[in-house]
Design goal:
Number of strands: 3
Number of helices: 10
CATH superfamily of the largest domain: Homeodomain-like
Structural class: mainly alpha
Helix content: 55-70%
Radius of gyration: 21 Å
Low-confidence stretches: none
Distance between the termini: 51 Å
CATH architecture of the largest domain: Orthogonal Bundle
Order of helices and strands: HEHEHEHHHHHHH
CATH class of the largest domain: Mainly Alpha
Mean pLDDT: 92
Amino acid sequence: MADNGQSAYELALEKNPDLIVTDLVMPRLTGDELCRRIKGAVETSHIPVILLTAMGEKESIILGLEAGADDYIVKPFDMAVLRARIRNLFKQRSQLQAAIVMDKVEEEGAEFGNELDRRFMKKVQAVVGAHLSDADFQVADLCKEMAMSRSSFFNKLKSLTGVGPNDYIRIFRLNRAHELLLQHTQSIAEVADAVGFSDAKYFSVCFKKQFGVSPSRV
């Protein structure tokens, strides 16, 4: 809880909340200004924002949406409506997370909440892909190339994908391995090495856990 927009912004930076519900009219920092700051920084742009407004005019709604708000509700409102909107936002986030992890965003027509989030994930994919065969590539290396602190990067990636950095790197490697195996041009050991697994047996265990079948059955 925060009694003004500035405190809300500072709290968001500290807590990395799953959702922000804010009034449009607030002291120190208005709701649309708060939303603009949240959506304008890569560290927080993934946080969904719902704006509440007592003004039913079209201008106030446009103001909130232009600030990047994910949804708006005109006061007075029924709490059941707010809960339904929140559930809908979380459902959309869950669908996006699944699509990102399985690298099927375009295929499934999933949409990022904003351009910063899309560019962030594109860069993560590019960096991990560039080090695909490097078994020594670690989360610390990824954070360095993303120019983010470990905590900021963890919060951002976990919010967008639902998994931590180590899990994401492993799943990314396995997705690429699945693509290579479908080509039937390399042995399992060669594919494992190509995606950064130095131990073919461990690779097979991880692959089966991820896809439900062993590499030899692909």
